[in-house]
Amino acid sequence: MWRLRAALCAGLLLMIRSCLAQEGAWWPNRGDPQRLWTGEDLSAMKPGDSPYGALWPRPRSVQISDDFLYLSPARFSIVHGSSSTAGPSCNLLQDAFNRYYKYIFGDSKWQESENRPLGELQLLQVVIISPDSDCNAYPSISSDESSLETFSQLVYQDDIGLFLINKTLISDAPRFGHRGVLLDSSRHFLPKKILFRNLDAMAFNKMNVFHWHIVDDQSFPYESAAFPALSKKGAYRQYTHVYTQDDVREVIEFARLRGIRVVPEFDSPGHTQSWGEGQPSLLTPCYTGEQLSGSYGPINPIKNETYTFITKFFQEVANVFPDHYIHLGGDEVDFSCWRSNPDITKFMADHGFGTDYSKLESYYMQLLLEIITSVKKGYMVWQEVFDNHDKLTPDTVVEVWKEKNYQNEMAAVTAAGFQTILSAPWYLNRISYGQDWIQIYKVEPSNFNGTEAQKKLVIGGEACLWGEFVDATNIMPRLWPRASAVAERLWSNQQVTSIEDAYNRLVKHRCNMVKRGIPAEPLYVGFCDHEGHL
Amino acid sequence: MWRLRAALCAGLLLMIRSCLAQEGAWWPNRGDPQRLWTGEDLSAMKPGDSPYGALWPRPRSVQISDDFLYLSPARFSIVHGSSSTAGPSCNLLQDAFNRYYKYIFGDSKWQESENRPLGELQLLQVVIISPDSDCNAYPSISSDESSLETFSQLVYQDDIGLFLINKTLISDAPRFGHRGVLLDSSRHFLPKKILFRNLDAMAFNKMNVFHWHIVDDQSFPYESAAFPALSKKGAYRQYTHVYTQDDVREVIEFARLRGIRVVPEFDSPGHTQSWGEGQPSLLTPCYTGEQLSGSYGPINPIKNETYTFITKFFQEVANVFPDHYIHLGGDEVDFSCWRSNPDITKFMADHGFGTDYSKLESYYMQLLLEIITSVKKGYMVWQEVFDNHDKLTPDTVVEVWKEKNYQNEMAAVTAAGFQTILSAPWYLNRISYGQDWIQIYKVEPSNFNGTEAQKKLVIGGEACLWGEFVDATNIMPRLWPRASAVAERLWSNQQVTSIEDAYNRLVKHRCNMVKRGIPAEPLYVGFCDHEGHL
């Protein structure tokens, strides 16, 4: 029995330019009769095989040879390399080692290869080479990344149950630093279990930002410590349909262990109907003629109490969510209620806003942005905040979401020197019949008129799943593997555009997700060895 | 404590014009303060409330009064009425009693009402009045129906956990006798568990025919006793992706206990690529010029061996599936391979078919139909078999599936005196963004030019979920509650067309399904008290 050593070089968290190197192995040759029983000859399989196996997203550089080693579940270990700056005290890595051992070997029956003249891979050494490999830190936009995920995707099982891995050289790093998924827990409440499962799926696809659109008009499930009435009255149900402070902490930690940032969105001044349930004086009272109509509009921007509330509320949010960024929304403000309100009319006149209500919107946003800066946070905003010429700090991230002419908006935002992320073509709540992942996959975020410097300001994108038509019953198969198409677009080289090769890998990657408990829907006809059971 | 007796009058299986009558109750009056804490005042709920509660499909005639009784999980029983022709030896009813007790009371915490001046419903008597109530029989197209389902849909829980039922008078019977769901286990294999879950959902929606499109081009998961090679070579995987004879029996029995018929479809002569894997001489070899191309076309209709195989195979099918009907397919036969084959060309000439290959198709179908008649079965066919003027037995059911001008086809089929079922507008595999259940709901099967006698030949319809894009991961939320719209259309009066009332009931019915373990997707924004967990 040969003993092998593999070194997986990695950066902060789970790595940078991972590389798998073997020494002293016995390699069966191509065409060796042994290959027949290993099940490696997969030519009969539909769909076809990719030269990149089941790797998803495709790494920057991959060389998979025909030579392979086998892995014994009884003997294989994942360990810290001797030159690593991390060690057993790093719970993040220990957790990852355990998790990936299970992903690789699963519950399936396996076979040892005692009598086979095969090389065996017994050790995966993880070497963290970053000087600041703090295992307790939260990931950030500048974190170097890669993961054990790549290694696990290289392992496969042959027909008789042997675990095999081909000798492979990989050099990898993501193209974009912001690879997000937006979930909306307001139109439908999403149980914590579903959030966890989605974070797992994100990790399997190397996505690294959970954009948590946590509240909106329809419900306010965030249980605030400072303002408990917000969820008590604004959630669909005050006990079962809320995220307590502990729940939020658990979600953030679950994400951190997988190298995923949690960026919460508390959208205002529009999309705030549910805020008004527990904080009635916050919203603008609407009028019908000279009478109060009984309904409410956006946050009331002309009252001092509004800013007292907003300051205290976002101080809490800034403490609860460790990420540097808070998403402040700022989209789709409906001016009709403001127009109806005589106090607002007077305020507009006093401030010389004329009848341009976008100036009133800017007035509110500007104060909000200053509050956020005062609590030492950066912010993300929807494109309207940029369009309204609000004064933004240089590290602001502008999210482009309007589908029409989104390339023009990308050009304008980057020409003004702001970082941007793209979600316009990736509203995955929209569905159509057939293989719509192909259109999702074909999007090229840098495809707009601009200089190289402008293109560098595109820091990534997000797959958005708005919640009108999804809840725990259908959210996972609706999102996955369609969001995988976004994941590869944001990770892999710009030149990775073959639909056929993507299909061949994504079919396998989808089955790997299903095997790991993610009910990712099928791309087209076919099967997985392990069908998903709900 | 008042003791009440309720009688649920029922026909064969579980019913016919069920009626719930109470005697000697104390009824709180409308406006009684007691009503406040019962949670009956649901006016704050969005969506609105229907006068028909959560009943789905809407029964023929319903009178729900404001008076209500409470049910104690500890004391409530479902029993055979003394005048019933069925008794404890009827396992079908015993199983249903147990099942529905659990559906009604679930696992939720409940509350007794010892100190409340409320009437209590302690007994549900089920009275079967059919003279031939054979509990071991299989359901048929002429079975009278209704169910405990209606009773269970009337029970609700108030805010403090009391189970309540309003005094209600119901008279019910379905409008159409054939209310089907087609699942396709060939494009993707559907684990038995999923079939069971779908049968449960069908029962919750009073659908009564499982049209099992069990094999097709892509795979042959039916494990034939006479021809085991068909699945051994034609299934996606020979052990894990097949239905054994035991599996099939289990599915049929699971369906029978819920009043659901299982109509298997073995589609031929087209859609049979997978048959050829295990029965290679069955299919027509295709030619490129004068050379065999290596690919195969539809079943070869010119060989005697074909009919020897078909006879033996359908003899088995006729034995395994107890329903009177077998669906023989007959759709979408591609003539290009037949055209390329010189033996077929000669046969066509010998029989004077000219170049009309639909005559060759009819030649095959005619022999097949005779074989089915010889094994004492009736058949269902796709519309092409009718369109080709094949000679059909009078009890044939023609299924209209082509969307274009389907009303004309309904008129033609019924004008020729054949029974028909409609599936053309109900291909639920097709999806679009938004509330597409409304279009599904608006279909009126009798909406074609024809006499009253013709309309009577419309015996129902089917929601078809073809399997290209669905497997175990997404099939249930894709199908439900969209198929519920078909269910009500086929059960309720033609006059039941209010979208608003349907929405108000379907939202509740969807949540009831979720509570019972069916991951039925949401119609729109909102919530269920018990969110679905996958």
Automatic annotation (TrEMBL), chains A, B:
One of its GO terms (biological process) is ganglioside catabolic process. Residues 55-117 form the Beta-hexosaminidase eukaryotic type N-terminal domain. It is found in: Cytoplasmic vesicle, Secretory vesicle, Cortical granule; Lysosome. Gene3D superfamilies: Chitobiase/beta-hexosaminidase domain 2-like, Glycosidases. Keywords: Cytoplasmic vesicle, Disulfide bond, Glycoprotein, Glycosidase, Hydrolase, Lipid metabolism, Lysosome, Signal. GO terms for cellular component: cortical granule; lysosome; membrane. Disulfide bonds join C90-C135, C286-C337, C511-C528. It catalyses: N-acetyl-beta-D-6-sulfogalactosaminyl-(1->4)-alpha-L-iduronyl-(1->3)-N-acetyl-D-6-sulfogalactosamine + H2O = alpha-L-iduronyl-(1->3)-N-acetyl-D-6-sulfogalactosamine + N-acetyl-D-6-sulfogalactosamine; a ganglioside GM2 + H2O = a ganglioside GM3 + N-acetyl-beta-D-galactosamine; a ganglioside GM2 (d18:1(4E)) + H2O = a ganglioside GM3 (d18:1(4E)) + N-acetyl-beta-D-galactosamine; N-acetyl-beta-D-galactosaminyl-(1->4)-beta-D-3-sulfogalactosyl-(1->4)-beta-D-glucosyl-(1<->1')-ceramide + H2O = a beta-D-3-sulfogalactosyl-(1->4)-beta-D-glucosyl-(1<->1')-ceramide + N-acetyl-beta-D-galactosamine. It holds the Pfam family Glycohydro_20b2. Residues 176-493 form the Glycoside hydrolase family 20 catalytic domain. It comes from the Eukaryota. Its main location: cytoplasm. Its EC number is 3.2.1.52. InterPro entries: Beta_hexosaminidase_sua/sub (IPR025705), GH (IPR017853), Glyco_hydro_20_cat (IPR015883), Hex-like_dom2 (IPR029018), HEX_eukaryotic_N (IPR029019). GO terms for molecular function: beta-N-acetylhexosaminidase activity. Residues 1-21 form the signal peptide. The active site is at E332. Belongs to the glycosyl hydrolase 20 family. Hydrolyzes the non-reducing end N-acetyl-D-hexosamine and/or sulfated N-acetyl-D-hexosamine of glycoconjugates, such as the oligosaccharide moieties from proteins and neutral glycolipids, or from certain mucopolysaccharides. The isozyme B does not hydrolyze each of these substrates, however hydrolyzes efficiently neutral oligosaccharide. Only the isozyme A is responsible for the degradation of GM2 gangliosides in the presence of GM2A. During fertilization is responsible, at least in part, for the zona block to polyspermy. There are 3 forms of beta-hexosaminidase: hexosaminidase A is a heterodimer composed of one subunit alpha and one subunit beta (chain A and B); hexosaminidase B is a homodimer of two beta subunits (two chains A and B); hexosaminidase S is a homodimer of two alpha subunits. The composition of the dimer (isozyme A versus isozyme S) has a significant effect on the substrate specificity of the alpha subunit active site. This is Beta-hexosaminidase.
